[in-house]
Each structure stands twice: as C-alpha cells, then as structure tokens.
Design a protein that fits this description.
Pfam families: GCP_C_terminal, GCP_N_terminal. This protein is mainly α. Helix content is about 50%, strand content about 5%. The longest helix has about 45 residues.
Length: about 1000
C-alpha cells in the first residue's frame, strides 16, 4: 500500500473497465473461451488496476456496450469453472490475453418480445435432458452403433435382420400360442417351430438377447402343439371315457390360457413384458406336458388313472395353486371310473348296455364264464361276474375295492330274486333326500360334508327297508313335479303404442340375450392362478385347520367309505336274509348227511345195498325173475361174466337198470327217516320232472318216492379210460369210483354252493365210500374167521399156520382201518361243526335286535368260508394236491385189506383140496400180509414226516385261497383263520401208535 492511500480501500478491486486494453473489440473478444484463460495473467494485471468508486455507479456501474451488433454480446450461458481452475492463457490474433467477465452474465437475452398466453403455456413441452450413455440413447442409437462397420461396441450383429419391436412381439405371441406367424413356422418333420430368418434381432436388442427371450416362446409353442396333438388323437382314435376326460381337461387348459393371453396388437411393444406374461403359462404347460407323458401311454383307463394319481402324489409338496389345479384334473379324469362304480353299486342309473352275466364286461368288472377244473382236468364253466384286478386303479385300497365289488354282486343277486326290495329299485335309491354321489374330496371339511350326507342317506334307506319289512311292499318313489314354465302372453290389442313398443323391445332383448355359460371349476382355478400374486398366502391354513389339504393317498378311502360302508352293510343283510329264507341251512345239512355220510341211516342202507352178500342179486339172468330186496353184493360173492355191465364184457360195473333197482329209494327213504317233515322249499326245479340218474354223460330218469332238495340223486361220473379200467375189477379199491351223487343247487343258493364246493363234496364222498366199503369188509372177516382154526382139510377150513397168519392180519387190519375211519370221521365232524356254528351266528346276527353285519360280510364272505371249511376236510381226508404220495400209499394199504377180505370170502365159500389148498392159500395170505405190513410202515413214516413239518403240506396250499375275513383280510364275521387247518395226521398217528406196536 502506498502512502496517502485510503486504508479502507486496501482490498478495493481495480477498475478493470477503466482501461480499454482489458476490453477488446467485440469481434476479437468472442472468439475465445473464458475457460482457456490463465490465472497467472489475471493475477498479474489485477493489482495494477484500481476501481473508481465515483462516476456512474462505481463498482456496480455497467460498462458501455457497443450495441451496434447486439448478437455479438450474446455469450454462452454455461457456468464457467472457478478461477482456480482457469489456468490457460488465451491469446487473440494480436497476442493479448483478456478476462471474459461476461461468462458470469445472466441468461441469454430475449431477441424479441414474446406474446404470452395461457394456451401457449399449456402446449409447452419440456425437452428431455440428453444423456451421455449409448444404452440410454434409445434403440435407434443402439442400432446405429451395432450397424457401424467399425463395430465400436464389439458386438458381432451386423448380419442380423432388425425387426421392429411390435412385429417381433406379435410373432412371439403367436409362437407362444402354438400358431404360425411371419417369423416362425411349424416343421412337421422335426415337430418343432423354426424361425424363417437365419439371424434376427429386434430393435434395441442383440441377437443373443433376442434368442434367449425367444427360447421361452419356442418351448411354449412346441408344448402347446404337443398338447393339442394329444387331444386331437384322443378325440379321433380313442373311445375310452377316462382318456377322453383327460383330453377334455387338457383342452380346457389350452383354451383358458389362450383367453388369458388375448392381448391387443397395439399393446405389444415390449418383448420383455410379453416374456413376463408367458413365464407362468410356460410353467403350467410344462406340468401338463409331463402329465400326458407320464399317464398318456397307459393301456387302459384304470392304468392311466393310476399313473396320473402317482404323478400328482409325487408333486404333493407344491405350495402354489398348481397342486389345486392338478387335483381338479384328477377329479375330472376319475369321473368315468366313479360313475361306473356308482352304477355298479346301484346309486346311479346305468348308461349304455346293462351288465349281465355272460355279456361283455366294463371297467373293473368282467362278465365271463368262471372256470372250474376238477382233478381229471374237466372244465366246468359258469357265467358270473369276476373282479378284473388288472383294471383296478393302484390307489384303490384292496379291502375297499373288494367291498365295492361284492356289494355290486349282492345287488344283482337281490335284483334277480327279490326285485321289490328297496335296494334293488334304482328309483328308490336315487330319490333319497340326500342323493348319494361318489366323488373325490381333497380337504377335511369336504370329507366331513360327505359323512353328513352319507348318514342322512343311511337314515332314509333304513326307513325304506323297515317299511318294506313290515308291509311287504315297496312304496312308490316320489316324483317331483317339474317347475312351471313361465309363459309370456302376447296381448297387444287395445294397448297404447308406448306400452306395445316396450313389450316388443323386452321380447327382443330376451330372445337375443343368450344366457352366459358358467365357467368350469378348472377354468376358474387356472384364471386365478394366472392373475394372482406369485407369493402364496398361508394365513387361512393357520386360522382354519379344517381347510388343510388331505394327504392324497387317504383320499380314495375317506371319500368312498362313508357311503360304501352303509350300502354294503344293507346289501349284505338283505342277501344273507334271502339265502336263509331259501333254506340254505337245509341244503348244507343235506350235503353233510349224504355227501359226507353224516347220516347213519343213509350209510347203513347204502352199505347193505352195495356190499351185503345176503341180498338178492339185481343182475339180469335169463329165465330168472328178480324178487325181494336186491343188492350189488360187491366182493361178497363171485360175479359171473355176462352182458349188461358198463365195462362192456364183464358184469361189473353194473348196468343202469341194475343200479336203479338197487339204489331206488335209498336217498329218499334215508332223507325221510332223518327229516321229520319235508322242507318248505325243497327245490326250485319243476315238480313234474323226476330225479335224474346220469350214466355215461346222459341223464336217465327214474321214479323216486320223494323229491330231495337240489334234486339229489345217484349218478355216474365222467371217467378217463385208465379209471374205467380200474373200475372193471370188482375186488379193487376203485370198483365204486363211478358212483357219485348228483346235486343241482337252486338259485340263489348257487352263490354259496358253487361248482368248486360241489367238486370237493364229490371227492369227499368217493373217499368216504371207500372207507365204508373197507369197514364192511372188516365186519365180514369176523364172520369168516370161525373156519380159520379148523384143522380139517377139504371141508372148507384152512391150515393151522395159515389161520394164525390170517388172524394176525385181521387184527392189524382192523386196528388200521378203525384208526383211519375214526380220524376221517372226527376231522369231518370237527370241520362241519365250525360251519354249523358259523351258520347259527349268521342267523343270530340277522335277527331283529342282533349285532348286525359289517361291510364286506356278505354272500362272498360266506362262500369263501364254506369253501375254506371244505378245504380243511380235504386236508383231513388226505385229498390235497401235495398229499398225493401219502394218499397213494393209503390206497395200497386199503387194497391189501380188500384183497384179504376176498381171500377170506373165498375160503369160507369153497373147500380146498389136499394137494394145493393148504400150500397155495398159506402162500397167498403170507405174501399179502407182508405187503400190508411194509405199506403200513411206509405210511406211518410219511405221516411222521408230515407231522414234523407241522402243516407244511397243507399250509402251503391252505393259505393261498384267502387271507381271512369277509373281504379277504383278518377279522370280521367270516374270518378264515378261525377255520384252521384241522388235525391232518397228528390224531391219526396217535391212534395208530397208541399201543406202541409200530414204534
């Protein structure tokens, strides 16, 4: 600071405007930028100048502008950098630097006055600020950068065809819906959509990004095409209801998705937005495509339904709404199966051809001939309904399926023999207040609703059955009157024009406005899934436990049991009552008395008619009149060869007339002696036709005093040539194998007394008849033994040594035969006692106020129980398949006994000579006795091995026919386990070895 200067002006800014050198001419000043000035030049010049505070305004005085050229005074409005950053010196043409103070000037001055209006204010637009990024410069800038030959973005997309966003989006939409478009077409050879251009991209996107987005739509298009192809093939080539139901569900899914993606063409601007719309659609299409691959290749509806159920069970962990959609598809596809199950149970009217025996089956029911094969390989066919296990869905519990099938069988048995019963009348069943319907439910709340409807249905059904039991007739079904139709009367005469016009307009509106078709549940679920938020809501599961999803494996059982159980119980009660009313107990007792030789009167009469040597012969002899009581005298006396035998040459087997004379009246008289009074319903056969006697496969009639239940009579069984040859020898054990009992079970008793059970009765009769013959022979041996101790020869006696051998043989044979016959009799009696006890229990349960029945305890359960009792008898009688070895040894032992009886009869009837009588007779009985002893030892050894196995022979076969229970399981009224196997050989060994003789 110089002396004399005002200290207050020490920091005064120099008057830059005083010197003209700092204010160049306009044409020189506006050619430079203020940012190019050097701070050093400014710092050197500022101290030398002073600002004059006087004059025109001092520091704030405006400089004198040369306004000759106003445009030259316009300076850039950009804000200059601070002085510290201005370090560059700018020289003009003359080399002089300057400070551009106009860089601090305000906005650019208006060139002219503006006329301001409100319209101009509303129409003004704000220009978007410019950006320095290429990606934000718009698709045009990106396309220009990509198309540049220099490739500044390092993206090799110069050869790609650029398509506008709207055009490409329209093609993608058509592709996702499985349709052809300008850019994508369907290739029939590869079964895929292909792009018509080799390399394509949309404006603003690279080829790679375009291809990645297109992959989603290609997947949707190919999947849609595959689903549509599946539905078209199903509709044209298949007729199965289940497959058509699946195709209908797939078609509903496709139509719903297309309706959801019905987007206007004007809104297709962004392919990214379109991609977000197709992502949930792609997820659904993938699921249904996997579903048809998993279930569509099945051979029948039931296998397809099983595969579908298994696929949905595997995806049970899903928490989104797709699981609900799949369950609805399962419900729709299983509808044909449930409808047929309802028709089989009688709760729905049958559609199409009704099921009858011998016709074509349907679903899990086969209407075919049930095949029975006897021990000789003969086939017996009876028309019946058979459960086709190959057509049963895998998710159906075995017990429930057995109950369902047996309930349908009981219903048809009831319709055939008691058509007036309320259960047999479909109009009564379907007209109940709570109409029963078989359907799947997948929540606990709906399962409880099914239980409520089933309980109400059971009450209605019970009331109808009680009314039928008391009155004896079924009340007619209530038919609701159809609702009255609303009729519009056209009466315009005499009305004002305005009212007539209004009436006509209302009529036109009614005719032209079609009622809206309600959308299906599947459509609603699909729409909600596509429009709902992706985050699932689980709050309702927490507050309402009854809406929790039901475990899928439990769905069939819990959905069907509430209705199936009461219906099966009522049907079982009705059919068993029908069987008892048809004298089932009488017919079973008939088989016990005759087929199993339980009647002592019949056994005694039959033995005397066949074996008593004191009866007159029934054989036809020339010149001799047959009179008195006649018999076959088998083994008692030597029979002469002659004509008339079934064998052809000899007199044995006897002829048909001889059999009729001998056996006439044996059955009827024995039945009359054991039965105080004739049964109320002995037979369903015509009363005019007499009982039949079957010979050689033909039926010959003869007159009998009394008609027996089931037309019981004697007959001749069908035999093979080797068996006929065995019958030709009257001294053999097989001499009476041609004789059998003929029985025809009347309906409806044939549901329990089946051909298989009749075959077992026939085998038991044959075995017991052999034992009866051996017992008779042993009785005759004691009559002939009085001559064995005679020491005289030639007078009908035998030698002393021969007599001792014969006496020992007689005692041992008597012991063996008594043990065998006692074992057989006790085994048959014990098994039949189980059957009689079960029949009494059934009768007690069916009485009013009784315990009642459970589901599955019906006719089929009783049939299996009856057959299981007979199988136990087959084991006791050593007639099972794996007992053929021990049975063969037993037949050899009994054959030795019969041979010994024949020797004794011959010794008692004729005298022996001195030359050859003693030697030949002693040698014959000695060899026969040795054979007998060896065979008995073999038989006992085999029986010991069987006893050590503890039922290994019988148990291997006995448990294969049923597991027990009314429906094949354990427990219940008809529990097969309580029948047991019986004492196969344990009691027999105790009887044979009780004295320790064979030890």
């Amino acid at each position: 600071m110089e002396d004399g200067e005002d200290p207050g002006n020490a920091f005064a800014i120099p008057d830059l405007w005083a010197s003209s050198r700092y204010f160049p001419e306009p044409e020189d000043s506006y050619g430079f930028l203020f940012s190019q000035l050097k701070f050093d030049d400014i710092s050197e010049k500022l101290p030398e100048q002073t600002l004059s505070h006087g004059g025109n305004g001092g520091f704030f005085a405006l400089p004198d502008f040369p306004f000759e050229n106003p445009e030259a005074s316009i300076i850039s409005t950009s804000t200059p950098p601070p002085l510290s950053e201005r370090g560059e010196e700018i020289n003009n043409d003359e080399g002089d630097g300057y400070v551009d103070i106009w860089s601090f000037a305000p906005e650019e001055e208006l060139k002219s006055a503006n006329y301001l209006t409100w319209d101009a204010f509303d129409e003004q637009r704000e220009e978007a600020p410019q950006t320095c990024y290429v990606s934000e410069g718009g698709p045009q800038l990106f396309d220009a950068a990509v198309a540049d030959d220099t490739n500044p973005l390092q993206i090799d997309n110069q050869d790609a065809v650029v398509v506008s966003g709207s055009t490409y989006a329209s093609s993608l939409l058509a592709l996702g819906l499985g349709r052809d478009s300008v850019l994508f077409t369907w290739n029939e050879e590869t079964k895929d959509f292909e792009c018509t251009l080799k390399s394509v991209r949309t404006s603003g996107c690279t080829t790679e990004l375009t291809h990645d987005i297109t992959a989603l739509f290609l997947h949707c298009g190919n999947t849609t095409k595959a689903l549509r192809s599946f539905t078209n093939k199903t509709y044209h080539k298949h007729r199965s209801p289940g497959r058509i139901a699946l195709a209908d569900a797939i078609s509903t899914v496709l139509s719903t998705l297309q309706s959801h993606l019905n987007i206007p063409a004007s809104s297709l601007q962004s392919i990214l937005k379109l991609q977000s719309l197709f992502q949930p659609v792609s997820h659904l299409l993938t699921i249904f495509h996997e579903l048809i691959l998993f279930a569509g290749s099945a051979e029948n509806d039931e296998v397809m339904l099983s595969n579908l159920f298994q696929y949905i069970e595997q995806t049970e962990h899903r928490t989104d709404s797709t699981q609900t959609i799949l369950l609805e598809v399962l419900s729709r596809v299983s509808r044909p199966f449930l409808d047929f199950a309802g028709e089989w149970l009688g709760i729905q009217r049958e559609t199409g051809m009704p099921l009858v025996k011998g016709s074509v089956g349907k679903s899990f029911v086969k209407a075919e001939d049930r095949l029975w094969i006897d021990e000789h390989g003969m086939e017996i066919r009876t028309p019946d309904f058979v459960l086709d296990e190959a057509r049963v869905p895998s998710f159906m519990p075995e017990e429930d399926m057995q109950i369902l099938f047996e309930a349908g069988q009981s219903l048809r048995l009831l319709r055939e023999h008691q058509p007036e019963h309320p259960l047999a009348r479909g109009d009564i069943v379907t007209a109940a207040a709570a109409k029963p319907v078989l359907e799947w439910e997948f929540s606990w709340q709906n399962i409880e609703a099914i239980g409520e409807r089933a309980r109400q249905y059971e009450k209605d059904l019970t009331a109808a059955i009680e009314k039928y039991s008391t009155s004896g007739h079924t009340p007619p079904a209530l038919r609701l009157a159809p609702p009255a139709e609303k009729k519009e009367e056209l009466n315009l005469f005499g009305k004002p024009p305005s009212e007539m016009e209004a009436h006509l307009l209302a009529s036109i509106t009614t005719l032209t406005t079609a009622p809206l078709t309600p959308s299906s549940t599947l459509t609603t679920l699909l729409t909600n899934h596509l429009t709902a938020s992706p985050t699932p809501s689980t709050s309702h599961l927490t507050h309402n436990p009854t809406s929790l999803p039901l475990p899928l494996p439990l769905t069939p059982h819990l959905s069907l049991t509430p209705l199936l159980t009461p219906l099966s119980t009522h049907l079982s009660h009705a059919t068993l009552t029908l069987l008892l009313a048809s004298n089932l107990s009488t017919h079973l007792s008939l088989h016990r008395s005759f087929s199993l030789l339980g009647s002592g009167v019949f056994a005694s009469r039959l033995a005397h008619a066949l074996f008593d040597p004191d009866l007159g012969t029934a054989e036809r002899q020339r010149g001799v009149v047959r009179e008195g009581v006649m018999g076959l005298r088998l083994g008692g006396r030597g029979r002469q060869k002659g004509s008339g035998g079934l064998g052809g040459e000899g007199s044995w087997p006897p002829g048909g007339s001889e059999l009729r004379l001998v056996l006439s009246g044996v059955l009827s008289e024995s039945y009359a002696a054991t039965t105080p009074r004739a049964p109320s319903r002995p037979s369903t056969s015509s009363s005019s036709s007499p009982p039949a006697f079957e010979i050689g496969g033909r039926v010959r009639a003869y007159t009998a005093p009394t008609l027996l239940p089931g037309d019981l009579s004697f007959g001749v069984r069908h035999m093979t040539p080797p068996e006929i040859s065995a019958c030709l020898d009257p001294s053999s054990l097989s001499a009476l194998d041609f004789l059998r009992l003929v029985y025809h079970p009347p309906a409806p008793l044939d549901a329990v007394i089946t051909p298989e059970s009749l075959h077992m009765y026939d085998r038991a009769f044959c075995a017991l008849l052999r034992c009866l013959r051996v017992q008779f022979v042993m009785g005759e041996l004691f009559r002939a033994s009085k001559t064995w101790d005679s020491s005289r020869r030639g007078r009908g006696g035998v030698g002393r040594g021969e007599g001792r051998t014969a006496a020992r043989f007689r005692n041992e044979a008597q012991h063996f035969v008594n043990a065998i016959c006692s074992h057989f009799e006790s085994g048959v009696t014990a098994a039949w006692g189980v059957m009689e006890g079960k029949m009494r229990e059934v009768e007690d349960r069916l009485q009013p106020g009784g315990v009642g029945l459970a589901a599955g305890e019906g006719v089929e359960g009783l049939r299996r129980y009856h057959e299981r009792v007979l199988e136990r008898m087959m084991g006791v009688l050593l007639l099972r398949g794996r007992q053929s070895v021990v049975r063969g040894v037993l037949e050899e032992v009994l054959g030795c006994v019969l041979g010994f009886g024949g020797w004794a009869a011959s010794a008692s009837a004729a005298s022996r000579t001195t030359e050859n009588g003693e030697g030949d007779g002693e040698k014959g009985v000695e060899e026969l006795y040795k054979t007998f002893k060896s065979k008995v030892k073999v038989f006992i050894t085999i029986c010991r091995g069987m006893e050590e196995k503890k039922g290994g022979v019988l148990g291997a076969e006995g448990g294969g026919r049923g597991k027990g229970g009314g429906y094949g399981g354990r427990g219940g009224l008809f529990d097969l386990e309580e029948v047991g196997r019986g004492d196969v050989v344990g009691g027999l060994l105790g009887r044979l070895e009780g004295s320790g003789y064979y030890c």
